[in-house]
From TrEMBL:
It comes from the Bacteria. GO terms for molecular function: phosphorelay response regulator activity; transcription cis-regulatory region binding. Residues 7-121 form the Response regulatory domain. The modification 4-aspartylphosphate is found at residue 56. Residues 222-287 form the HTH luxR-type domain. It comes from Marinicella litoralis. This is LuxR family two component transcriptional regulator. GO terms for cellular component: cytosol; protein-DNA complex. The lineage of its organism: Bacteria, Pseudomonadati, Pseudomonadota, Gammaproteobacteria, Lysobacterales. InterPro entries: CheY-like_superfamily, Sig_transdc_resp-reg_C-effctor, Sig_transdc_resp-reg_receiver, Tscrpt_reg_LuxR_C, WalR-like, WH-like_DNA-bd_sf. Pfam families: GerE, Response_reg.
Length: 288
């Protein structure tokens, strides 16, 4: 896919409509891919990332609304324009709520079609440039609805989101319902921690979230080397610095609370401090 020849995927169960779209768009210099069903469109999207998707709303078996939702799971950034003979507000709203950026009423006005296609491809390209700038600055961001649907995401944030398990998603959705600006959520895994920071509520009701991943093994090793403590003491101190109680640490490390306390006594002695707040401060300083 080259800069001067954007690719468009047209999805419609009517062969005549696909043929007209192909001729019209090709004449304007676009590369056109066609699919006669939602399933075929999804198969194409697993191999190619088009610059824009034209999607018929009413198709047998898998309709356009269901297809749109599935497309957003594969490529959340793909601009989708619905083509529909349905002008009812209910259907328009349904299409836009599934992630479409626009809609066209059939029979299509070809001049309007070309104009809207060009506008949305240009907007998507500018958005992509902005995302690349955010990624290069280490800003891994996403906007997510209250029910967990991804509206917009940078590449790395999308990678983090796709790696979430079912319990992570349920925890995220519950957090979004009550989170406020600068609130934090930690999703703990065996070898890593995913930190989410709530930034703001968007005008469309979605939530802007910042993602940052931490490598637990690397961070614990850093504590061990910098503070000259044992491996197990670094395990305990890491979770102390994360604000965990002795009971929570005992469950995470599968040791007794008494053992946690014994390790803390050694940590305080080695760091020459007398409480967990001071020990946490030294740990956080070592990790920054």
């Amino acid at each position: 896919m080259t800069k001067n020849k954007p690719t468009i995927l047209a999805v419609d169960d009517n062969p005549d409509s696909l043929n007209i779209l192909n001729l019209t768009l090709s004449a304007q210099g676009f590369t056109v891919l066609v699919a006669n069903s939602g399933v075929q469109a999804l198969n194409i999207l697993h191999k190619v990332q088009p610059d824009l998707i034209l999607l018929d709303a009413i198709m047998p078996e898998m309709d356009g609304f269901e297809t749109c939702q599935a497309i957003k799971h594969i490529n959340p950034d793909a601009p989708i324009i619905f083509m529909t003979g349905l002008s009812d507000t209910e259907h328009v709203v349904q299409g836009l709520s599934r992630g479409a950026v626009d809609y066209l009423i059939k029979p299509l006005n070809h001049e309007e079609l070309i104009a809207r296609v060009k506008v949305h491809i240009n907007t998507a390209q500018q958005t992509r440039i902005s995302k690349q700038a955010l990624e290069s600055a280490g800003q891994h961001l996403a906007t997510i609805t209250s029910d967990g649907q991804v509206i917009w995401t940078t590449a790395q944030a999308n990678t983090y989101i796709k790696a979430l398990n079912k319990q992570d998603l349920l925890t995220l959705i519950a957090w979004l319902k009550q989170a406020e600006t600068t609130d934090l959520l930690e999703l703990l895994h065996e070898d890593s921690t995913l930190n989410l920071t709530y930034l703001t509520l968007q005008k469309d009701g979605s939530h802007l979230i910042k993602f940052k991943a931490s490598d637990l093994k690397l961070e614990k090793q850093t504590l061990k080397l910098k503070l000259k403590i044992t491996r197990r003491e670094s395990d305990v101190l890491y979770w102390v610095a994360k604000g965990k109680t002795d009971w929570e640490i005992s469950k995470i490390l599968t040791i007794s609370e008494r053992t946690v306390n014994k390790h803390l006594e050694q940590i305080y002695r080695k760091l020459e401090v007398n409480n967990r707040t001071a020990a946490s401060a030294m740990a956080l300083n070592a990790l920054n």
